[in-house]
Design goal:
This protein is mainly beta. The protein has a single domain, classed as L-fucose Isomerase, Chain A, domain 3, CATH 3.20.14.10. The chain is built from two helices and nine strands. The strands form two sheets. It has a six-stranded antiparallel beta barrel with strand order 1-2-7-6-5-8. The chain has a two-stranded antiparallel sheet with strand order 3-4. A hairpin with a 4-residue loop joins β1 and β2. It is globular. The mean pLDDT is 89.
């Protein structure tokens, strides 16, 4: 639908800058790395089970407009059960950020327009999760069609 895409996680908000740090354990598509920044391969400690330290490419995502989508259960009905699944989607902007030498995973700074605490509340109340698919560009229309084809609820968090 959008060419190269990746998996990410909303890691932590920076309320002063109105941004969210995107990162995860190392799963990220290096095709989306900022071409003006280095990609560094590092051994990373792995705390889940018995595993040799994995090699993880550390980089920042390329700046630009992105769309993020979270697949989750739809809101709970009066019966106490979820009615099915949903896509919770929103747009944002990957912005340039300083190098973070202590991070051991790919990362980016996400800026959304509007008030960050208000956005995070709306996103949480809609059932958005911290694991997301990320694609470059405005993909709202494409994701709406995807939700229709899958027969699931679609929820856009307007900004």
């Amino acid at each position: 639908m959008c060419g190269a895409s990746t998996f990410t996680e909303t890691f932590c908000p920076d309320y002063q800058k109105g941004e969210i740090l995107l990162s995860h354990m190392g799963e990220c598509n290096p095709a989306l790395a900022d071409p003006d920044r280095p990609v560094v391969l590092k051994a990373k400690p792995f705390s889940i089970g018995k595993c040799t330290r994995p090699a993880v490419p550390i980089f920042q995502l390329e700046p630009g407009t992105i769309t993020l989508a979270s697949l989750s259960e739809s809101p709970v009905t009066e019966s106490g059960l979820a009615a099915g699944f949903q896509l919770v989607v929103f747009r944002g902007e990957i912005v340039p950020a300083g190098e973070q030498s202590k991070l051991t995973s790919p990362y980016a700074r996400l800026r959304i327009s509007g008030d960050l605490p208000e956005f995070l509340e709306r996103y949480s109340r809609a059932g958005g999760t911290h694991h997301l698919a990320l694609g470059y560009g405005d993909l709202i229309d494409e994701l709406f069609v995807l939700a229709e084809l899958m027969g699931i609820h679609f929820c856009e968090i307007g900004i």
